[in-house]
Design a protein that fits this description.
Elements: H1 2-28, E1 31-36, H2 42-55, E2 60-65, H3 70-83, E3 87-90, H4 98-108, E4 112-115, H5 121-124, E5 130-134, H6 137-154, E6 166-172, H7 178-193, E7 198-200, E8 205-206, H8 211-225, E9 231-234, H9 237-249, E10 263-264, H10 270-278, E11 284-287, H11 289-304, E12 323-325, E13 328-331
Parallel strand pairs: 1-2, 1-3, 3-4, 4-5, 5-12, 6-7, 6-8, 6-9, 9-10
Antiparallel strand pairs: 11-13
Bound molecules: calcium ion.
Calcium ion binds next to strand 6.
């Protein structure tokens, strides 16, 4: 009799625990792991903030800083997988290492959304729960090309040697990064398609997206070619800021000054917007980090809930059928 009562009590307790557990899980929402290539990146910080905000009250997220090292990110993924997650978001350190990452996640059946640094989409297509959210890399370059055309038309004084050509130096992010390659190529192609004749001064400076490296390279370029450089094209604003620092040191691009070499970048960082406002930078291209974060969050929540990734969202796939592109927009004064 006594033991029968105990059994009933025990059963009630287990049932209650089950209800509490279900309620707790419901309140906390799904568990989502977020792997970031590195926290110390202005644009990515904007995306992270947007992700945190978008998931608030809807999911429990665990975010990790890959610190620019793919081996570190691989370890972080292993730990996440061992804990068990409902969804994973990956901002690859090295996009070329995506095959191994997809393979590990696929083995768990967890939905995954890659964003920003673009893996080979054929690799993602090997797993039916993998999506990519990025930009159209060529667009950023094309918008730079349009800005170059407007600059050229706006001020004949930019043609310092009056040869009808825009002499430029180019700052590239990384040698093999698809965004860097596309920006470098399409900025020039688009300006030329717009009828501007461009002539490069020196080699392309590969400066790892970095301000200090770009400043050093620009100082060397100016030492060899001062007075011959009429335009600075940079794959991102951080390198554009380095070029501006080098120019400012020798009297160009100073707020309120009379000598300006147009400098254009990509990202629309706070520093760049400030420099454009001061008239010491001529343009940038806005990569909308908030829109990126919101898209990644909405798509992840759909996939985790077992819905179609784009269900109820304003997004559409590109030709690949598994990638969503967040548009860029030009930013000038
Ligand atoms: Ca010229």
């Amino acid at each position: 009799m006594k033991s029968g009562k105990s059994r009933v009590l025990l059963a009630v307790c287990i049932a209650l625990l089950g209800i509490f557990a279900a309620a707790a899980a419901f309140a906390a929402g799904p568990n989502i792991g977020v792997l970031i290539y590195k926290y110390d990146d202005t644009y990515i910080s904007t995306v992270r903030n947007a992700l945190n905000k978008a998931f608030e009250g809807k999911a429990e997220i665990t975010m990790q800083d890959g610190k620019g090292d793919q081996a570190t990110q691989n370890d972080q993924l292993d730990v996440m997988i061992s804990k068990g997650l409902d969804g994973i978001i990956v901002n690859m350190v090295d996009a070329q290492a995506a095959a191994g990452v997809v393979e590990k996640i696929k083995a768990t059946g967890t939905p995954v959304v890659f964003f920003n640094r673009e893996p080979d989409l054929n690799v993602l297509k090997t797993y039916d729960k993998a999506i990519f959210v990025g930009t159209n890399a060529a667009d950023a370059g094309k918008m730079q090309g349009d800005i170059i055309k407007n600059l050229w038309d706006s001020n004949p004084g930019f043609d310092l040697n009056k040869d009808g050509q825009f002499q430029y130096v180019m700052f590239k992010g990384e040698p093999d990064n698809p965004e860097a390659i596309a920006r470098t190529e399409f900025s020039v192609k688009q300006a030329e398609a717009n009828g501007v004749k461009l002539a490069q001064i020196g080699e392309t400076f590969v400066c790892n997206w970095d301000t200090a490296l770009a400043q050093t390279a620009m100082e060397s370029a100016l030492a060899a070619n001062e007075g011959k450089i009429e335009l600075v094209i940079a794959n991102n604003d951080s390198m554009a800021m380095g070029a501006i620092a080098a120019l400012s040191n020798i009297g160009y691009n100073v707020e309120g000054g009379s000598k300006l070499i147009p400098v254009i970048g990509v990202d629309a960082t706070d520093q760049a917007i400030d420099a454009i406002g001061k008239g010491i930078m001529s343009g940038t291209v806005k990569q909308d980090g908030e829109a990126m974060g919101n898209a990644v969050a909405a798509i992840t929540l759909n996939m985790v809930a077992g819905k179609a990734p784009l269900d109820g969202t304003p997004y559409a796939y590109d030709d690949s059928g598994i990638a969503v592109r967040i548009p860029y927009s030009p930013y000038v004064k």
